[in-house]
Amino acid sequence: MIVTNTPTQDLTLTNLAFCSASDLHKFAVSGYSNLFLGLIGDSFVFYVVAHYSVHSGHIALNSIQRRCVKVSTAEYISVSRFFPPDNFNLAVLTLELDFIKRGSRSEQIDITNQTGVIYAF
């Protein structure tokens, strides 16, 4: 898929990946309703949501996600559905929080929203 920017400024704080509505079914996890997970760059798993402004064949990531995956906008990256293995138990979770804009310490993080994504499993 081709990497693009997150659709709107407020969505950059969600840590979600965005695709077109026509591509969303490619990330559906069987056995779960409304759970769409993408393995991006064969390294990172992100919760995927459809957004009307993302074109088919594109994946929208925020700047921190792009930095982690080591990709720039307009580059092609492998993206596939993440299938949690049977009896998938998370042994270790590393959660890193950082400011989107360095020097701006007035940002607020909606941890309730992020916890919902973590508890989706």
From TrEMBL:
Domain of life from the UniProt record: Eukaryota
The reaction(s) this protein catalyses: ATP + H2O = ADP + phosphate + H(+)
InterPro entries hit by this protein: Asp_de-COase-like_dom_sf, Vesicle-fus_ATPase
Cofactor(s) named in the record: Mg(2+)
Molecular function (Gene Ontology), one example: metal ion binding
EC number(s) given by UniProt: 3.6.4.6
Keyword line: ATP-binding, Cytoplasm, ER-Golgi transport, Hydrolase, Magnesium, Metal-binding, Nucleotide-binding, Protein transport, Transport
Main location: cytoplasm
GO biological process terms on file: Golgi to plasma membrane protein transport; intra-Golgi vesicle-mediated transport; SNARE complex disassembly
Note on cofactor: Binds 1 Mg(2+) ion per subunit.
GO annotation, cellular component aspect: Golgi stack
Record localization: Cytoplasm
Record's keyword annotation contains Acetylation: no
PANTHER family according to UniProt: VESICLE-FUSING ATPASE, VESICULAR-FUSION PROTEIN NSF
Job description of the protein: Required for vesicle-mediated transport. Catalyzes the fusion of transport vesicles within the Golgi cisternae. Is also required for transport from the endoplasmic reticulum to the Golgi stack. Seems to function as a fusion protein required for the delivery of cargo proteins to all compartments of the Golgi stack independent of vesicle origin.
Family: Belongs to the AAA ATPase family.
Name of the protein described by the UniProt record: Vesicle-fusing ATPase
